[in-house]
Write a structure and sequence with these properties.
Abhydrolase domain containing 18, single chain, Rossmann fold, ABHD18, AB_hydrolase_fold, seven-stranded mixed beta sheet, globular, about 40% helix, alpha/beta, 17 helices
């Protein structure tokens, strides 16, 4: 086991177990497609508000109603079941499925506190329905080890909040993930304020995998210093669905079809994307309009053409880049104009878009321009759909699109060095976005870390809470 806090420590490969485990799962993601265009527009407009902590101070009232409707008494703890209406239903009416409007949680409180009355909010990872998994693997051990309470919030689209037409954990639409994120940010604010009003201290947030992303988003919105422990997550979800092993589970056929047939995605929704989204998608298009065609286009057997990538350095200087889509091993073939090699790469490289050197603020993308709108060949539409996926995912999940947490020294990130689910290559690191945060790396991949390293997740929680108490002993 490696517990590395050096920012230079990075993955040396991907876990075979991660790849094998994913192949055992046959369900497809996003079988319904992108989601309603009007829903995407509403989500992106709301993201511009919720991404700015100052704009959100009055979104959730201090006395937002929370109800405890059941209490169970156990030998070492009490388990309270609670409910409240998600604030997202008030702020963006109708965006949540009716089953998800009522937020549900379990509050697991030790009968004997060891020191203060600390509470950690745990958000659910992919497939973590109801409360049993987090209660058994994290909350109950935390009571025994540290006398720490846990509050387990059920994600929208999971457990009691799962829509009737959703298959297991497979979100039906891409937009569902963004709705989930917006809801969890607001719902976490409700719970943090409720816990504070009830006299609990200190308060923190954690989550594993998708739960780590969601906990990170929630903390960007909290106006006070707070411990944050995201486990097995990183700076954006775009790489998860375009280059990670989960990209193979995405229903690209439906996404490509919808993107090809509905011009609203390319003509309207793209204009709503900020920072990573707009930069990554529009950069290739802008470059394509401004550079002489014979220098920028490679004809692929007629009909469809591809523009060479561009990227922007941290200082803002735009440069022409080699096509980074195919990775280091394929650039020579591009430069030599080897069309057969290029087409072979298109078929074999999957969705490897994230191969840009670290430190670049905008992600490179490949933007295809169709010369015949009736001719939507698979390579063309697949790459455009991937570019669009990167744009919309970065818009709503990239941490650089949200406020920096008040005190980044209270953040301890736990990552797996060989994580095939959460690619870190070619995306901004959390250390770059949140200077001062600590990153701990574990040997192995995503699945092995989840199955066998929960104790390291819990230790990171204890360390972050201790750090908070030492730094802010009087902050209540």
């Amino acid at each position: 086991m490696c517990l590395c806090v050096d920012a230079r420590c990075s993955s040396m490969g991907v876990s075979r177990l991660d790849i094998f485990y994913r192949r055992l799962l046959l369900t497809k993601l996003f079988i319904g497609g992108w989601g309603k265009p009007e829903d995407l527009k509403r989500i992106f407009e709301f993201r511009k508000i919720i991404g700015d902590r100052e704009k959100c101070k009055s979104l959730v009232p201090e006395d937002y109603p929370v109800y405890i409707n059941k209490t169970e008494d156990h030998s070492d703890c009490q388990i309270h079941d609670g409910v409240f209406i998600s604030p997202l239903e008030h702020l963006v009416p109708g965006i949540l499925p009716k089953e998800a409007v009522k937020a549900r949680f379990q509050f697991i409180v030790p009968k004997r506190w060891q020191n203060n009355r600390p509470v950690c909010i745990h958000l659910a990872g992919t497939g973590d329905h109801f409360f049993w998994r987090r209660r058994t693997l994290m909350a109950r051990p935390m009571i025994k080890e540290a006398g720490m309470a846990s509050l387990l919030l059920e994600n929208p689209y999971y457990g009691y909040r799962k829509p009737k037409d959703q298959m297991r954990s497979s979100l039906k639409n891409v937009s569902d993930l963004f709705v989930m994120g917006g809801a969890l940010i607001l719902e976490s604010t409700v719970l943090l304020r409720w816990l504070h009003g009830e006299g609990y201290w200190p308060l923190g947030m954690t989550g594993i995998s998708m739960g780590g992303y969601m906990a990170s988003l929630a903390v960007t919105n909290w106006p006070k210093p707070i411990p944050l422990i995201p486990c097995l997550s990183w700076s954006t979800a775009s790489s998860v669905f375009t280059t990670g092993v989960l990209s193979k589970a995405v229903n690209w056929a439906e996404l490509e079809k919808q993107y090809a047939l509905n011009s609203v995605y390319e003509e309207e929704i793209i204009n709503l994307l900020d920072y990573c989204g707009a930069d990554s998608f529009k950069m290739g298009q802008d470059f394509g309009r401004n550079v002489d065609s014979k220098d920028r286009l490679l004809d692929l057997s007629g009909g469809d053409r591809v523009s060479v990538n561009t990227y922007t350095k941290a200082g803002g200087e735009t440069q022409v880049g080699q096509s980074l889509l195919f990775g280091e091993g394929h650039r020579e073939g591009m430069a030599g104009g080897n069309v057969d090699h290029l087409l072979s790469s298109l078929d074999n490289s999957g969705t490897n878009l994230d191969t840009i050197p670290r430190g670049l603020h905008a992600k490179s993308t490949l933007c295809w321009k169709k010369t015949d709108s009736a001719k939507c060949s698979r390579p063309s539409m697949h790459k455009e759909s991937i570019s669009f996926m990167k744009g919309v995912m970065d818009e709503c999940t990239h941490m650089a699109n949200f406020s920096v947490p008040v005190d980044t020294s209270l953040i301890i990130v736990v990552q797996a060095k060989e994580d095939a689910y959460i690619p870190r290559t070619g995306v901004l690191s959390l250390q770059e976005i949140w200077p001062g945060c600590e990153v701990r790396y574990l040997n192995g991949g995503h699945i092995s870390a989840y199955l066998f390293k929960q104790n390291f997740f819990r230790q990171a929680i204890y360390d972050a809470f201790k750090r908070f108490c030492l730094k802010y002993p009087g902050l209540h």
